[in-house]
Amino acid sequence: MKFYDRQRELTELDNLEKQTVSSARMVVLTGRRRIGKTALALEFARSRRHLYLFVSKKSEPLLCAEFLEDIRRQFDVPVVGEIRTFQDIFRLLLELSRKEPFTLIVDEFQEFLQVNPAVYSEIQHLWDVNKGTCRLNLICIGSVYSLMRRIFEEKKEPLFGRADRIFNLKPFPIRTLREILDDAGVKRGRSLFDCWVLTGGMPKYMDLLAANSALTFERMMDFVLQTDSPFLDEGRNLLIEELGRDYGTYFSILELISLGKTARMEIQSILAADIGGYLERLENTFGIISRHKPIDAKPNSRLQKYRITDNFLNFWFRFIYRNRSAIETGNFAYVREIIDRDYPVHCGLLLEKCFHELLAESGNYNRIGSYWERGNQNEIDLVAVNDLKQTITIADIKMNKTRLGIEGLKHRARELLASYPRHRPEWLGLSLENIADYLPK
After folding, report:
1. What phi and psi values does residue 255 have, to the nearest 5 degrees?
2. CA-CA distance, 212 to 229, in Å (whole number)?
3. What is the DSSP letter of 186?
4. Low-confidence residues of the chain, pLDDT below 70?
5. In angstroms, what CA-CA distances link 333 with 258, 325, 330, 340?
6. Is there a contact between 255 and 235 (Cβ–Cβ < 8 Å)?
């Protein structure tokens, strides 16, 4: 698959590289696995002098020997003596950048914690001493979100405050998925939405589907539900290292959220355990779930729901992980029956999320959310507010447009509108076919 999107990030990387004319620059690319961090860095560096180093889990002397070979292939380096530490490797690279500016990409940067945790302090010291006299453009890539946040954003860590920019890459927006489908010759409409529901816009997943001609729902499910499919163990592969030894409890919580058990007390009663700390870490440390409140809720309001932020993980926990016994015995037909039965309900909740994202991208609103009252009464799928123009858009969202009802929506919104007496309301009924109306022409 060709390189898509990321124009903003490429422009910013170009601007930062230009700044190395006066001193070295450090950039961090983070975001979950499969988001395209390495592809972005290599696309940026493709036409530039660069060196790519991958931090694998091996002893520091062996790793440095590998790095030294990579350096010698790119540069004329007369090395005297043996280099066995990354400190010496980094010192050498800083020295080389004094003579010739170049981009250094260090992938899986968080793995130095396993190789030698002192590396971060050593980098800090060399960076602070040499930054002003070197022209190195350093790009650090990390796929374990919690560790990269700790390394670069916690005040007690040696590299805190050293990065000139931290990019937290997000999945492709739905407009980019439309471009991928157009390039593949696949009709838009339902296929576009189904691709977004399964992949959430993750570049690696779209690449896999496109390469295997699996960009329609039937072909997607055939590809996902087969022996040795890369999607079957993907949730485990993504999260076990991130979540650590308590991953079983985290997985149970995520499975329940994927099934629509979105309130803390509801989850807690099912698991018969206090899960407050787990929810807090899933939200704030790992970034796997997010907390949602009614759009006009006060900061201390207890009206809140949890959602899995990643579409693929939401799908994986609901349909793959929950049916892991059938998966392990190869009974894919059974899992397909479950998907055919429950997929429409799963899609209904995600259609709301889709329109939230599309309206946010329009730039016409300063606040977008949902609304409900205590006991989940008077639920409204989408509320978008423009306080400057004093407008409020209130929408009912249904997969089946025949189930849309504006009069019922107006009835449910009475208390909401009482909080916006000066705002002019706009009423919308949105269904699957309206997605195209909110995409760039």
Report:
1. -60, -45
2. 11
3. -
4. 79-81
5. 21, 13, 9, 10
6. no
> What is the rounded CA–CA span in Å between residue 301 and residue 15?
43
Residue from 56, 5, 3, 11 nearest 165 by CA: 11
CA dihedral 275, 251, 326, 190 (to 10 degrees): 110
- Say what the pTM is: 0.90
Which 3 state secondary structure label does DSSP give 33?
Answer: coil
Contact 162, 124 (CB under 8 A): yes
Tell me the two tokens of residue 148: 């990269």
Q: Is the dihedral of CA 319, 346, 272, 277 positive or negative?
A: positive
CATH (one of 2.60.40, 1.10.760, 3.30.70, 3.40.1350) for 358-438: 3.40.1350
> Model confidence over 406-437: pLDDT tens digits?
999 999 999 999 999 999 999 999 999 999 99
Q: Residue 29 corresponds to which tokens in the numbers above?
A: 């690319």
Domain boundaries, the chain: 7-168, 174-224, 234-330, 358-438
Does 7-168 match 358-438 in CATH topology? no
Residue 307 · residue 290 · CB < 8 Å: yes
Spatial separation of the C-alpha atoms in residues 322 and 40, rounded to whole Å: 34
Where are the alpha helices (H) located in 259-405, listed in sequence order? 264-271, 276-280, 311-315, 324-328, 332-362
Distance in angstroms (rounded) separating the CA atoms of residues 167 and 30: 6
How confident is the model at residue 195, as a pLDDT? Answer: 96
Q: What residues have CB less than 8 Å from 173, skipping those under 6 apart? A: 5, 201, 357, 361
CATH architecture assigned to 7-168:
3-Layer(aba) Sandwich (3.40)
Asked if 89 and 64 touch (Cβ cutoff 8 Å), the reply is yes
Q: Are 382 and 395 in contact (CB under 8 A)?
A: yes
Separation of alpha carbons 75 and 390, rounded Å: 61
The three-class DSSP label of residue 16 is helix
Q: Please tell me the distance from the alpha carbon of residue 193 to that of residue 395, in angstroms, as a whole number.
A: 19
Residue 347 tokens read as: 């899609």
* Cα 93 to Cα 408: distance, rounded to the nearest angstrom: 66
Sorted by sequence, the CB contacts under 8 Å of residue 397 that are 6+ apart come out as 351, 352, 355, 381, 382, 430, 431
What lies within 8 Å, CB to CB, of 117 at 6+ separation is none
Q: CATH topology for 234-330?
A: Arc Repressor Mutant, subunit A (1.10.10)
